[in-house]
Structure of GTP 3',8-cyclase:
Amino acid sequence: MSEATVQQMISSFIRQTRPCFRGGKAFRCHRRLLSTAAEVRQTEVTEPPPRWQPHTVPGDQPRAPPTRLQRLRNEPEPRQFSSFLTDNYAREHNYLRISVTERCNLRCTYCMPEEGVQLSPPAHLLTTPEIVYLSSVFVDQGVDKIRLTGGEPTVRKDIVNLMQQIGQLRNNGLKELCLTTNGISLYRKLDAMVDSGLTAVNLSLDTLSEGLFAIMTRRNGHSAVMKSMNRILEMNKMGAGIKLKINCVVMRGINEREIIPFVEMGKEQDLEVRFIEYMPFDGNKWSERKMLPYQEMLAIIREKYPSVGKATGHPNDTSKTYKVPGFVGRIGFITSMTDNFCGTCNRLRITSDGNLKVCLFGNAEVSLRDILRESNNGEPIDQEAMEAIKQVEMDRRQGLSSSTGALGVSRREAKLLDVIGMAVKRKKEKHAGMGELEHMENRPMILIGG
C-alpha cells in the first residue's frame, strides 16, 4: 500500500473520530490510529480480494472469526467525561440548570423578598440564541440533562421555541429536557412542550388549600396549578411519559399539617412528592425556627404510615426517597440544611443574566454572557448575529482564517471552556452550614433559578 493511501486513511479516520476529542484533548484513538497505520505499512497487500470472496491468508486457509477479546480491542474506546466539567473531588457535572427569566407571576414568601427584586435590564439577559449556544457547548462536553427554571419559565414568551431548539440537542447526546414551574400557565403550553422534547416537570405546590395558597404565594391561582398537574397525569395515561415531581417547601407553623395529604396524592397516582427543608436566601426572612428538619417530617409520616421505607434512587438525586407500601407514587426529602447532598452534586447553574454558579448556596459567579458577546461588541446576540458568528467560526475551521483554536474549536468556545473549567475546579467540597448560610450574601432565590 502506498504512503499516499496510508495518509488518506489517516485523514479519513481523524475526520470520523473528532467526537472523541473532549476538553481540548485528544484521547487514545490517536494512539490506536498510529498503531493501525504502522501495521498497514508492514503488511504487503498488493491487491485486496473482491468483496464477494472470503478473505484468506497465505496457504488458502480460511481466517478464523475474531475472538471476543479481539472484538473488544477493535471497538472504539468509550469517551472520557470532560475535564472542564469535573471538579477536584471527581464530581462529574452532567446536569445543567438554566434560568430563562427573572420574572414570575407569583410572590412566594420563601423565594421573593416582600419588597420585590430589582430586575435586570433586558439587554443584560441572555437571548434565545445565546441560551441555545451555551446549551450546545455544555452538551458537547458531556451534559445530558438540562432543566429550564426561572423566575417562572412559562412567562417567557418564546419558551416553546426555546425548548424546541434545545430539544434538537438530543442528536448530540442530550437525554433529558426538564422544566421547573409553578404551573399557573403550564396547562396552556404543555402539549407543545412535550412535542418539543419535554421529559420531566417539577411542579411547585406548597399547599392543597386554596386559601393558604394565596397567603404563601401572595397571589391567586391554585386551581390553575391543579389543572396543570391533572393535565400531566392525563397525558401520561395516554403515554406521554412525563416524569412528574411535586416540590413542597415545608415551613413550621404554616403548612406542616399538609404533609400527610401530600403523601396520599401518590396513593394511586404515579408521581413523587418532595418535601423541601426551608432554605435561607436573601430577602426571605429565613430563621432556623421556621425550618422543619426532614427527620420531623418523616416522623409525622411514620405516625400515619409506620411501614414507610427507603426506596432506591439515582446516585445523584438531591432527595432521600421513600415509599409507602401499596402506593403507586413515592415521596422524597430535600435535606439541604440538615444533611447536605454535596458529595454527589452533579449540577451547574446559569442565571438568566448569564452567570455560571457552581453551587446553589455559594455566592461565587462568573459571567459567560460577557465572553459570548465579545465577538458582538458586547451587544446581545440575536439570531442574525449568531448566524454571522457561526459562519466566521466555520471559515476558521476550514482554514479560511488563521484564528481557530486547538482541534477546530473557536477561540470564543475555548475561552468559555477555560472559564467554565476554572469555576468548576474552584467548587467547594460542601456548602457552609446553616449558621453561615443565614448570614451569607447571596442572590434571592428568584434571581438564581432554583
